[in-house]
Amino acid sequence: MQQAICGYHKDEEQHWVAELRCGHFQHVRHQPPWINRPWVVTAAGRTRMLGYLLECKKCDLGADKDSL
C-alpha cells in the first residue's frame, strides 16, 4: 500500500528514516550503486519529497504503528 512521507528522523546509526502518514517508518538510504536516493542527503531534498508516496510493506502486513 502506498503511503505519503510526512517527516524524517535519523536512527541510532544516523541513517535517515521516513515517517509515513500511516504511522510506519521506512529507511530511505542513499547507497549507490544499489540504492540511488541523492535527495536524502540534503535538507532541501528531503523537504521536496514530503508527500511522496512510498510502498509500505508494514501496512500490507497489518503491522502496528512504529514509535520513536
Question: Any chance you could write out the topology, listing elements then pairs?
Answer:
Blueprint: E1 2-10, E2 16-20, E3 25-27, H1 43-48, E4 53-55, H2 57-61
Antiparallel strand pairs: 1-2, 1-4, 2-3
Can you describe this structure?
By secondary structure, the protein is of the alpha+beta class. The protein is 16% helix and 29% strand. It has a four-stranded antiparallel β-sheet with strand order 3-2-1-4, with no helix packed on it. A hairpin with a 5-residue loop joins strand 1 (2-10) and strand 2. The longest helix has 6 residues, at 43-48. 9% of the residues are buried. The model has no long low-confidence stretch (mean pLDDT 96).
Class from secondary-structure proportions: alpha+beta
- Largest sheet features: 4 strands, antiparallel
Mean pLDDT across all amino acids: 96
Secondary-structure element pattern, one letter each = EEEHEH
* Poorly predicted segments: none
Strands ordered across the widest β-sheet: 3-2-1-4
Count every helix, treating DSSP H or I runs of 4 or more residues as helices. 2
- Radius of gyration from CA coordinates: 12 Å
Report the end-to-end length measured between terminal Cα atoms. Answer: 22 Å
Number of strands: 4
What form results from the Cα inertia axes? globular
Percentage of residues in strands: 25-35%
**Helix fraction bin:** 10-25%
